[in-house]
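FYI - complex with 5,10-Methenyltetrahydrofolate, inputs then prediction.
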Amino acid sequence: MAKIIDGKAIAKKLRAVVKAQTEQLKQKGVIPGLVVILIGNDPASEIYVRNKERAAEKVGVNARTIKYPASATEAEVLAKIEALNQDEQVDAILVQSPMPAQFNSEVIQAAISPAKDVDGFHPLNIGKLFANRSGYYPVANTPRGIMTMLKHEGVALAGKNILVVGRSILVGRPMFALLERANATVTLAHRYTPIDTLKLLAQQADVVIVATGVVNLIQGSDLKAGAVVIDVGINRLADGKLVGDVDFSSASQVASAITPVPGGVGPMTIATLLQTTVELAGQHHDIEMEQAWQNI
Ligand SMILES: NC(=O)C1=CN([C@@H]2O[C@H](COP(=O)(O)OP(=O)(O)OC[C@H]3O[C@@H](n4cnc5c(N)ncnc54)[C@H](OP(=O)(O)O)[C@@H]3O)[C@@H](O)[C@H]2O)C=CC1
Ligand SMILES: Nc1nc(=O)c2c([nH]1)NC[C@@H]1CN(c3ccc(C(=O)N[C@@H](CCC(=O)O)C(=O)O)cc3)C=[N+]21
Ligand SMILES: [Mg+2]
């Protein structure tokens, strides 16, 4: 039986470090500010917004959500982003994805100031990540949270064979870049990867990270014995149950460690969002911040 990686518990530790950083900032008169823009209704986004508001309150981040109907125009959201870029109380801006069809997500992502880009979606920040640049810049919170989790669990990455399934700007692509930076050999699979190839790649992987939104895409029989499995998927079944992209019951028989859904990657995404928000606030006020993950 695999060890179940307790994302909730690790997120709690990370939040405690972030809370200490927030208090440090508050002594200098700085309250970190996060604004989330939610356009229309995506079920995974609604879970995210709800949990984020609770967590922000716990660590002392000033978070608010601006909601637009699915019929909102790109121009009105761009005007709001421009105002938030200028607002000194706001350190971090996030626009939930997916956006309704009338939105060009590339335009929205480039409109957010790179210094307030808490998702790490701006082309400048993406470019730095893929070029492996030094210095501080925001990186997408889900893959960054997964790196924190792997470090916490003592999973070695250098020289390992790692499969990432899914290539979105939110998860798969930045995950690939962070793992490559950690000296792993990384394969990025996607919709055009034939299923037989996917299964062969999974069989050879020391770590498998799945972020597709496809229920049961990976099963125990696809895995190498002792593999580490990170399940990013958030899927709501007809009966209301939340499941990932991995068949947990069969995979946990073969893996050495596995993240559950719920209680795995999701809580880490939220804690890391707050971590990045506090770091951006520190940057804006020239206050030196420790790297929170080094302390957990
Ligand atoms: N737990 C958390 O914190 C978070 C969870 N999520 C969840 O993770 C999942 C993925 O999110 P996101 O990356 O935004 O989703 P997207 O829909 O943006 O991307 C999905 C990716 O999966 C690939 N894919 C789809 N079907 C298959 C398949 N059959 N075989 C292989 N690859 C496939 C797609 O390939 P192609 O590019 O070719 O279309 C695409 O690259 C969702 O369930 C989402 O709700 C997302 C963010 C955070
Ligand atoms: N710009 C942008 N950035 C994102 O990071 C982003 C996004 N858009 N769009 C939607 C996805 C999805 N996402 C989740 C984060 C946490 C949970 C989460 O808290 N999950 C809990 C759920 C617990 C529950 O409430 O049942 C868990 O897995 O344990 C879920 C989903 C972030 N996303
Ligand atoms: Mg998505």
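The chain has two domains: 29-114, 141-266. The first helix runs from residue 7 to 27.
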